[in-house]
Known about the structure:
Elements: E1 10-12, E2 15-17, E3 21-24, H1 31-41, E4 45-49, H2 50-54, H3 60-72, E5 76-79, H4 86-100, E6 104-107, H5 122-132, E7 136-141, H6 145-153, E8 160-161, H7 175-184, E9 191-193, H8 199-207, E10 212-215, H9 217-220, H10 225-245
Parallel strand pairs: 3-4, 3-10, 4-5, 6-7, 7-8, 9-10
Antiparallel strand pairs: 1-2
Amino acid sequence: MNAHSTTDMLILYGEAFTSRLLLGTSRYPSLYALEASLNASQPAMVTVALRRQLAVQTTDIDVGFFDELKRQGARLLPNTAGCHAVKEVVTTAKMAREVFETNWIKLELIGDDYTLQPDPVNLIEAAGILVRDGFKVLPYCTEDLVVARRLLDVGCEALMPWGAPIGSGRGVVNPYGLKLLRERLAGVPLIVDAGLGVPSHACQVMEWGFEAVLLNTAVSQAEKPEAMARAFSTAVNAGREAYLAGPIPERDSAHASTPVIGMPFWHQDVHPTLDSGQKL
């Protein structure tokens, strides 16, 4: 899909994308809302679930879903949503490659059904298997630095750490951990995935130097999905521009923006002499 800027591209696995927003495609109220959101945000990629493609299509949005994505020319990013075991992930990924005709895969391997937190141990094993099988793997992970490094060790070239549990809309719950991940993995594309609720959340992580964000619930479940998609797209671009502009460092004390050296004499606390009883 076309994007907003051609001067600062997102690079994933050697491929350039002019947008830094990725968009999920589930839970939209209608096919029209999905189409309008895609047009408004112009995402680099859109996530799709194999389970949805293979499921019985019973609603209007299900019936026309993939036809609409093809018509839009959307770059598809299949995911392994709902998988809880390495074997299940590998099987789903291989089926998705056949169905969607792409080597790209968003690796999801859930370890806890309440938080939907990724399984930090089996995720590494699954990622290694998929990389060796020729997949371009984007693993959904937490902000754990050690796990992130192990994912890079097995061949992942980009990571998708969460900001908060999927669908929570809380924004980043561990700013220290996420910023430390960004600092320690300099040069590695990091896409914040899950938990962002409003455009300011996306702008914030982009200001920290993250390469992109992936959204779904915050857009699809908004009262006006199209307007929210546009707002997030604007926020992502603004955050990226702010990061490139070089924000000033945070300080613990005030720092005057106007210099005091050379201050004109009339700025000093001097009053004219007054006669007794006279008031200004």
